């Protein structure tokens, strides 16, 4: 699979003509892989909760999606406006919450 097109400044990726915030490029590969695994699991759980018509499970799963996206730098404060130690703290806290949740 090829990498998606990026905007000139590198802050966003363009997929089917729509801009999405890019993941933090400073994320170490192992951290990125763990966050993506949590994200995919949470998205599957959102779908399961919707099919089961379980709003509480859906809310929990959507919270995990949010945590993973924040850890990746795709939500919350823009990673390009943060210092590296703030970004590291954000991904470590996201992983800590997702790993224990």
From TrEMBL:
The UniProt annotation puts the region (Disordered) at 47-68
Top-rank taxon of the source lineage equals Bacteria
Q: What is this protein called?
A: Biopolymer transporter Tol
| Species whose genome carries this gene | Nocardiopsis metallicus
């Amino acid at each position: 699979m090829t990498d998606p097109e990026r905007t000139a400044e590198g802050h966003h990726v363009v997929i089917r003509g729509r801009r999405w915030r890019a993941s933090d490029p400073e994320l170490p590969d192992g951290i990125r892989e763990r966050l993506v695994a949590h994200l995919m699991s949470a998205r599957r759980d959102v779908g399961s909760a919707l099919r089961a018509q379980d709003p509480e499970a859906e809310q929990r799963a959507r919270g995990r999606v949010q945590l993973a996206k924040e850890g990746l730098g795709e939500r919350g404060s823009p990673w390009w406006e943060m210092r590296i130690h703030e970004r590291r703290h954000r991904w470590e806290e996201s992983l800590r919450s997702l790993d224990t949740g």
